[in-house]
Amino acid sequence: MKKSVGEVRIVGGVWRRSKLPVLDLPGLRPTGDRLRETLFNWLGQDLGGWRVLDAFAGSGALGLEAASRGASRVQLIERDSKAAASLRQVLTRLPGAAERVQVQCGDAFAALRGGPFDLILLDPPFEADWFERALSAAVPALSDNGWVYLEAPRELTPPVGLHLHRHVKAGATHAHLFKQDNPGP
């Protein structure tokens, strides 16, 4: 397994202060504590019963934060086999994680054809420029009144089916929280 070059901590919920290793992998930029705290302040602290997809899991910080705050089912999708193995190792150290969190080594876009999900977390590698594609792919995978969180190097306009609920710029990262448009009567 690749060596950890750092760590991030889960900031809230039952696994608060638990450390997550950050592997030395190209393009891996874990979401910082402040942005994660902001996201879960926007969403609310209790995600009890939510189904969550972390489509570009990396360190797992976003998806594990959701699980720590009560999400009932969290899928962590990571294309790098070493990062996926590291995530599986992390699950063995978090009480109850194995029952609610699933790690898959695979393609994020294939996972986005699943669902429905109450929350989809998108933090694709910035150099890949998959932001619009991932956002559009997330729309049909959402449950009614679902949410999509996206990190990108620029501010993005939502595709049909979503509207921007919140946005913040933190350093070089634009954090977007999109809400599914309400279907008509």
Automatic annotation (TrEMBL):
Keywords: Methyltransferase, Transferase. PANTHER family: METHYLTRANSFERASE (PTHR43542). The keyword Transmembrane helix does not apply. It comes from Inhella inkyongensis. GO terms for biological process: rRNA methylation. The lineage of its organism: Bacteria, Pseudomonadati, Pseudomonadota, Betaproteobacteria, Burkholderiales. This is 16S rRNA (Guanine(966)-N(2))-methyltransferase RsmD. One of its GO terms (molecular function) is methyltransferase activity. The keyword Methyltransferase applies. Pfam families: Cons_hypoth95.
